[in-house]
Amino acid sequence: MTAFWIIAACLAFIILAGTFRRRPGSALTDVTVLVGLFAMITITDMLLSNFINTGGNGWTLAALLAFGFALDALYGLLAPDRQFRRNRRLRQLMRRKRA
Predict the structure, then answer these.
(1) How many CA atoms lie within 13 A of 85 on its CB side?
(2) What is the pLDDT of residues 64-94, one digit of tens each?
(3) Cβ burial, residue 2 (10 Å; 0-12/13-18/19+)
(4) SS (H, E, C) 10-70
(5) What sign does the dihedral 68-73-76-79 (CA atoms) show?
(6) Which pLDDT value is given to residue 11?
(7) Is the backbone of residue 31 left (phi > 0), alpha (psi -120 to 50) or beta?
(8) Which letter does DSSP use for residue 77 in this model?
(9) In the chain, where are the structural domains located?
(10) pLDDT, tens only, 3-61
(11) What is d(CA 36, CA 52) in angstroms, rounded to the nearest whole number?
(12) Is the full-model pTM beyond 0.90?
């Protein structure tokens, strides 16, 4: 149950940080990606729990992922110009991989 509250707090922080940066679309995208990752973790945990005892490792992994995304949002709040440069480099890298 603790992992659920950590995840909920991280999601709220991501949305608030995006709102303060005046970029709520970016925050919503981060939350959407995170929810997709949660779905993959849940499906994998359900499949693995049929064969071995996972012991709630899915919740722990989801909480760590949410915390990582929250740290990224905090980094964007503290250094928005660096975050923008990093995002621009990632876009350039993805364009090179497509070509």
Answers:
(1) 4
(2) 999 999 998 888 888 767 666 767 777 788 8
(3) exposed
(4) HHHHHHHHHHHCCCHHHHHHHHHHHHHHHHHHHHHHHHHHCCCCCCCHHHHHHHHHHHHHH
(5) negative
(6) 93
(7) alpha
(8) H
(9) 2-98
(10) 889 999 999 999 999 888 888 888 888 899 999 999 999 999 999 988 998 888 889 99
(11) 24
(12) no
Amino acid at 91: R
d(Cα 64, Cα 66) in Å, to the nearest integer? 5
Q: Are 15 and 27 in contact (CB under 8 A)?
A: yes
Q: Measured in Å, how far apart are the chain's first and last C-alpha atoms?
A: 45
Residue appearing with tokens 């990632």? 90
Left (φ > 0), alpha (ψ -120 to 50) or beta: where does 8 sit?
A: alpha
